[in-house]
Every structure is written in C-alpha cells, then in structure tokens.
Amino acid sequence: MAASTRVTSPLLDVLEVFLSAWQDDDRGVHGWAIMKETKRSGPTVYGVLDRIETAEWITGEWDPDSAPGRPRRRLYRLTPNGRIEAARLIAERRPAASGIHAVLTRLGLSRWSPAFGGGSR
C-alpha cells in the first residue's frame, strides 16, 4: 500500500481482526466474521479487503471445508509483509490496541522509532 494511501478507521479495524487471527495460530478469517467483529457493513469490509489484497498484505483462498449446500467462503490471511505493515499502522495509530505489544514482540519489531510507539531499532 502506498505511503499516500489514506488510513481509515475501517482499515484499522480490519487490520486489528487480522492481527488477532494471526496471533491465534494464523487462522484464516472470512468476510462475514470480519463484518461481525468490526461491526462494519459488507461493502465497507470488502472494500478494505480489496485494497489490502491488492497491496499484497493478505492472500485469499476458498475454504475447502465449506458446508455442503452453503455458499463457499473465502478465507484471508496476512502475508509476512502484511503482518509487519499492519502491526506498524496499528502501533502508530492505535498504540493502546489490545495485544499490539505482543504482536510486535512476536514479529521482532518491539523496538521501533518513536513514530511507531517504540524505542530505537
């Protein structure tokens, strides 16, 4: 995602869901779960998913365990670069976010410049 890309509350909400899912054994999440967790509408969530998938922060794949007779679900996961960029944005914009320090530590990014809420690199 380009540095000039506008950072919105829906973007940050969606990224928080992905970071939480990554902490929880890197489980994939589908759009409906993200909508439920963020309390955001489908067009809003899927607009964010399109943006971050285009930026290669997430990958999507069809859920092989979709229930028969039900619509298939697309599962999304953060890419390695997406994890880093999502953690940086959340640390910068929502430093009090629950669990962000654990995410930063797990990524090896617990020591950052002050702009990202940490010490020197």
Automatic annotation (TrEMBL):
Source domain of life: Bacteria
Transcription regulator PadR N-terminal domain ranges (all copies): 27-87
Transmembrane segments: none
InterPro entries found in the cross-reference section: Tscrpt_reg_PadR_N (IPR005149), WH-like_DNA-bd_sf (IPR036388), WH_DNA-bd_sf (IPR036390)
Pfam families to which the protein is assigned, alphabetical: PadR
Protein name: Transcription regulator PadR N-terminal domain-containing protein
Organism: Actinoplanes palleronii
